[in-house]
């Protein structure tokens, strides 16, 4: 008797919450009525998997394509490995509108120059090819080790000066971490120090700081709520556009400065100058803009989450401190030091597994595709839910336990699925700034542990989507000088 492969089931057969006539499934996200919450999409997805299994469809969402949530890491691997040369990632509709409609004169003035965020197909592929030769080169991030460490030192001094009488960080500590992230990224993307920790009110630095903050406050609302901005320019949407215009204009001014320095010196010495030399000033400006839009909020929320989790675990801190002390021996950091700190890197990976700042990775299908045994139609947004998979015993042994060692001493006896936790994505659309983000995160965590013993003495914090997955509430850490 031959085994007969089960036939592929149709899209209609995929389980999921049933949409109502006219209201679809949008009503489920209405406060006090629906039971689903955007802020708690982590818990929503846990409940969806529990009720419907490893493949769940969500249809009838106002202004959005149908969605498919996938909670099977092996299926994630199969889809990723089968991708074509230009995967389509679900874009931010508001940013897509800004680049391709509102400011198409700028982003469309030069061929293949709209960037990698909210761009797809041949345009995306051509732009990424131009930028990746520079951004993903082996020494691209390493050359910033010393200046990034200097920014981290400035952050330490800032924290020392704003602690209260109980040695605790202020309620707006996350805002200080945002400033650190902006300072670090401006150093890398714009080749300049903004002096975010003491910028004057009328400075270009403060204009950029305010614009970046406005962008991040707006983008979550515009992307996660009903898209009323598509019908008329809401106040928030107008603020969002003004913020993007400011970020773009400041970026362009620094690209012009980089051009002048290249002409004066005859050579490039930074990422920005390398991009100008390799791909031209407009590509360099758009690449820097994209780094700002996706590199500040993600990195700062990751650092805030890591510091909070370390503050809950003094023994983990002490082991990390011993490792750091052994490597640095009271000297300044230099390129390659973090590679001698496997426990520090493992702790960062473990926090990102349990509390990923981006809870899911996505694709918008460019062709009909079989996923989990179902024929999923072209145009569907497929969300690979890494928060759920990363916290599942199906893919990690004792997934609910904080065990950095799982990243250091892998063994056949320990479950560890490579595609269950992907904080920087995978494949062709993996984060272009990954090397820089890791350098920033590892460096500031190293400096914080080296400088302070961290404790947390308040109510445990829940995590919310804001729009990053981050501790909800003031992060008041007790920081005692070592």
Automatic annotation (TrEMBL):
Keyword Oxidoreductase applies: yes
Cofactor(s) named in the record: heme
Classification via InterPro entries: CYP11_CYP27_families (IPR050479), Cyt_P450 (IPR001128), Cyt_P450_CS (IPR017972), Cyt_P450_E_grp-I (IPR002401), Cyt_P450_sf (IPR036396)
Single GO MF annotation: iron ion binding
Source organism superkingdom: Eukaryota
Binding residues annotated for heme, in chain numbering: 431
Pfam families cross-referenced by the UniProt entry: p450
Keywords for the protein's UniProt record, in alphabetical order: Heme, Iron, Metal-binding, Monooxygenase, Oxidoreductase
Keyword field contains Iron: yes
Family per record: Belongs to the cytochrome P450 family.
Protein name: Cytochrome P450
Organism of this sequence: Mythimna separata
């Amino acid at each position: 008797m031959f085994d007969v492969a089960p036939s592929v089931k149709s899209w209609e057969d995929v389980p999921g919450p049933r949409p109502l006539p006219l209201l679809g499934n949008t009503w489920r996200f209405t406060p006090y009525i629906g039971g689903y919450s955007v802020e708690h999409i982590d818990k929503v997805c846990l409940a969806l998997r529990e009720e419907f299994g490893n493949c769940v469809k969500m249809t009838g969402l106002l202004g959005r394509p149908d969605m498919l949530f996938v909670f099977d890491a092996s299926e994630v691997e199969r889809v990723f490995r089968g991708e074509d040369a230009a995967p389509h990632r679900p874009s931010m509709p508001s940013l897509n509108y800004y680049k391709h409609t509102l400011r198409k004169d700028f982003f469309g003035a030069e061929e293949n120059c709209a960037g990698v965020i909210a761009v797809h197909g041949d345009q995306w592929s051509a732009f990424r090819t131009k930028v990746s030769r520079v951004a993903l080169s082996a020494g691209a991030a390493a050359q910033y080790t010393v200046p990034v460490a200097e920014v981290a030192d400035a952050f330490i001094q800032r924290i020392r000066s704003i602690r209260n009488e109980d040695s605790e960080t202020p309620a707006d500590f996350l805002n200080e971490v945002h400033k650190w992230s902006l300072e670090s990224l401006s150093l890398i993307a714009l080749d300049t120090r903004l002096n975010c920790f003491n910028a004057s009110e009328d400075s270009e630095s403060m204009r950029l700081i305010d614009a970046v903050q406005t962008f991040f406050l707006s983008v979550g609302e515009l992307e996660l709520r009903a898209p009323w901005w598509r019908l008329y320019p809401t106040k928030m949407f107008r603020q969002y556009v003004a913020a993007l215009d400011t970020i773009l204009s400041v970026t362009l001014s620094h690209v012009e400065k980089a051009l002048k320095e290249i002409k004066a010196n005859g050579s490039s010495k930074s990422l920005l100058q390398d991009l100008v030399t390799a791909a031209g000033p407009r590509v360099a400006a758009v690449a820097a803009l994209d780094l700002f839009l996706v590199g500040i909020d993600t990195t700062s929320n990751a650092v805030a989450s890591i510091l909070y989790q370390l503050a809950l675990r003094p023994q983990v801190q002490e082991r990390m401190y011993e490792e750091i002390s052994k490597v640095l021996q009271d000297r300044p950091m230099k390129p390659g030091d973090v590679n001698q700190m496997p426990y520090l890197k493992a702790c960062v990976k473990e926090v990102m597994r349990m509390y990923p700042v981006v809870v899911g990775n996505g694709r918008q299908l460019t062709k009909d595709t079989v996923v989990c045994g179902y024929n999923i139609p072209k145009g569907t947004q497929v969300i690979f839910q890494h928060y759920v998979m990363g916290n599942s015993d199906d893919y990690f042994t004792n997934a609910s336990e904080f065990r950095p060692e799982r990243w250091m001493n892998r063994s056949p006896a320990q479950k560890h699925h490579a595609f269950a936790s992907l904080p920087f994505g995978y494949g062709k659309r993996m984060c272009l700034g990954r090397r820089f983000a890791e350098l920033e995160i590892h460096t500031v965590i190293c400096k914080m542990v080296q400088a302070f013993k961290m404790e947390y003495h308040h109510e445990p914090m829940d995590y919310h989507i804001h729009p990053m997955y981050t501790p909800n509430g003031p992060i008041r850490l007790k920081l005692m000088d070592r």
